[in-house]
Amino acid sequence: MNSIIFLTAAPEVQLNPTRLVAAALIGLAVLLFLIIYAKLQPVIAIICSAALIGLIAGMEYTAIIGSISTGIGNTLKGIALLVGLGSMFGAILEISGGAQRIALTLVNKFGDNKAAWALGITGLIIAMPVFFDAGLIILIPLAFSLAKKTKRSTLFYAIPLLAGLAVGHAFIPPTPGPILVANMLGVDLGYVILFGIICGTVAMIIAGPIFGKYIGNKIYVALPESIQDAPDFDESKLPKFGTVVSIILIPLFLIILNTVSSNVPAMASVAPVFKFIGEPFIALTIATIFAMVILGIRHGYSKEELEKIMTKSLEPTGMILLVTACGGVLRYVLSDSGLGELIGNAVSNAALPLVVVAFIVAALVRISVGSATVAMTMAAGIMAAMPEISGLSQIYLACITAAIAGGATVVSHFNDSGFWLVKSLLNIDEKTTLKTWTVMETIVGVTGFAVALIISFFA
């Protein structure tokens, strides 16, 4: 059969696969042009390219509008509340000094010789409830203080911290990226968390302490002048380590408990209760309330101050939600136009594992556009539009989620805001940033993908 049937309220329209491929290529090329060269805001660029794909593919005007509306609605209903709760949770952790407490305790426990490992673990833990940029700004002074104390290159400590933050941000819920992909692919978050931790931990070890030691010995980066006379941390004012870790682990524990109870017959009687408290937004709400009381009110903040802090934390979520919703738009336009089926058939004929396809798609978008969020949303949309997805196991879908996270992490360069943030904080030039940050991000992405691919063979 040389055509694909597209069904709308209008009479049947025969669409040629060549036209569908042309629509996809032209639409994505326009998207890259609008973001990279025209410097158009990604939200507008994605909407324009999605509409263009639909028009070129031959969709009815009403069908395009319907796909856009459905994409926005269905995507946001699964992630909007989680992003908001995660922002508030992270804000409380930030102002209470919880992030610093975890870092300092682990560094003291590991000792100066293994402090790089402590920073990697800290970054991984902190990036789950706190956005990457905020986590880096909060914790980078600790990396500087260690470099000052040991007189080593700042890269020796900064790279492990960056690796941990990158892993926690990309691979492990409740950060928005993996939640978005899981929502689009219909994956239980318990599996996403479990395999995200496995893939991410391996990636953090290789890209963090191991690569950090290598590049730290090879390239000496001095402390920024503004840090030379910075005072040490006052540990007496920080919350207890066990308290902070327990609160951070609450949502992860409840979500995983829900997954386990749903698959263990002996827990059938209590499964409904665990399903309720293990629902991601319920689990994160519980954790946020605990954080408000224990890290907020008991730490000296008034209810009014907490309300202002939490409200302020919601300001950056608008952009995240809009870009995420636009990823859903792209997914529905691809699916409703028939492109999803066409791509799925092409992948089947190419005999490539879907885990590999997911990584390649996410990596290409990441390299072209720069934004990890856009890369994850576009890759998830394309993968979700493939008919084969519906027949895959939860474990395999979790591996695809990790592969997308890996692809969306690799090759951070000049078009990525994270590249410039790291360059500025470490006070290094572009060439050094490429040799350090860009290589580290690529190791994180490729290693995480490789582990996911290995696991997928047994799914």
Q: What is the strand content?
A: under 5%
The arrangement of helices and strands along the chain is: EEHHHHHHHHHHHHHHHHHHHHH
Taking the alpha carbons of the first and last residues, their distance comes to 32 Å
- The residue-averaged pLDDT reads 85
Q: Could you name the ranges where pLDDT drops below 50 across 5 or more consecutive residues? A: 1-14
Indicate the overall shape.
globular
Helix content: over 70%
User: How large, in whole angstroms, is the Cα Rg?
Assistant: 22 Å
Main pleated sheet = 2 strands, antiparallel
Q: What number of domains?
A: 1
User: By helix and strand content, what is the structural category?
Assistant: mainly alpha
Task: Count all strands and give the number.
Answer: 2
Neighbour order of strands in the largest sheet: 1-2
Would you give an account of this structure?
The protein is mainly α and 459 residues long. The protein has one domain. Helices cover 75% and strands 1% of the residues. The chain contains 21 helices and two strands. Strands 1-2 form a two-stranded antiparallel sheet. A hairpin with a 6-residue loop joins strand 1 and strand 2. The chain is globular, with a radius of gyration of 22 Å. 54% of the residues are buried.
